[in-house]
């Protein structure tokens, strides 16, 4: 039998962390929470997963997540809850929305500053490729 670890306290180094100002980090928070939940052997208990995830978010977020239909309904799964949470944070999309304006901003940024060496060219290439691939 595997060594079951208790869920870490909120302030422990291993605890999952998420600052609600950074919506794009919410999927990573869920991944980290699921990792510690598996170590604590609660990953197959949907009710416990929903309840215990709250210990790692701020009070305002906790109140909001508790108000969600998938939290209140004991028949709803962890995955359904997680999906509903994510749907309320547009910035948490796995692939951020990009537009041609975003691409124009990248081009303009480097046109203004100029590209004078291979390091700057590589930086431009990374930013351009990241945005253009998602269009």
Descriptive overview:
This is Retrotransposon gag domain-containing protein. It comes from Gymnopus androsaceus JB14. The protein has 135 residues and is mainly α. It folds into 2 domains: 23-92; 100-133. Helix content is 56%, strand content 0%. It is built from 7 helices and no strands. It has helices at 26-39, 46-53, 59-67, 69-72, 78-87, 100-113, 118-133.
Give a brief rundown of this model.
This is Retrotransposon gag domain-containing protein. 56% of the residues lie in helices and 0% in strands.
What features would you highlight for this structure?
135 residues, mainly alpha, 2 domains, 0% strand, Retrotransposon gag domain-containing protein
> In percent, how helical is the residue content?
55-70%
Largest sheet: none
Number of domains: 2
Radius of gyration from the alpha-carbon trace, in angstroms: 20 Å
| Low-pLDDT segments | none
Q: What is the residue-averaged pLDDT? A: 92
Distance between the termini: 48 Å
- Total number of beta strands: 0
Order of helices and strands: HHHHHHH
**What structural category characterises the helix and strand content?**
mainly alpha
Strand proportion, as a percent range, falls in under 5%
């Amino acid at each position: 039998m595997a060594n079951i670890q208790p869920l870490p306290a909120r302030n422990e180094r291993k605890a999952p962390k998420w600052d609600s100002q950074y919506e794009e980090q919410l999927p990573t928070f869920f991944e980290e929470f699921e990792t510690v939940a598996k170590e604590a052997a609660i990953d197959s208990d949907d009710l416990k997963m929903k309840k215990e995830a709250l210990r790692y978010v701020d009070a305002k977020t906790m109140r909001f997540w508790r108000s969600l239909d998938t939290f209140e309904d004991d028949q709803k799964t962890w995955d359904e809850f997680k999906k509903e949470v994510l749907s309320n944070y547009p910035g948490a999309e796995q692939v951020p929305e990009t537009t041609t304006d975003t691409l124009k901003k990248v081009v303009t940024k480097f046109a203004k500053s100029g590209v004078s060496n291979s390091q700057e060219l590589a930086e431009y290439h990374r930013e351009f490729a990241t945005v253009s691939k998602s269009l």
